[in-house]
Amino acid sequence: MQFIILILLRVIEFYSYILLAYVILTWIPNLYDTALGKMIVSLVRPVIAPFRRLNLQFFGLDWTVFVIWMLLNVLSRILVRMMFFF
Prior knowledge:
Blueprint: H1 2-27, H2 35-52, E1 57-58, E2 61-62, H3 64-85
Antiparallel strand pairs: 1-2
């Protein structure tokens, strides 16, 4: 069970880095057209789409990615606690 939790923690960590790359893509719009940019967008958009309905835009900034980061952080903390439980 601990092995599965460790794998899930690594996946969450890797996806956090992909979200960071997506944020960088939003600052430099020309990067969307590259092959790497298209791959990152295709990995992130299905997760971001349900959160976009919540309209998390305040003060001219989109907080959707930040909310997803916080949820991933909570999920990883839960998994770490589960690892110590088993």
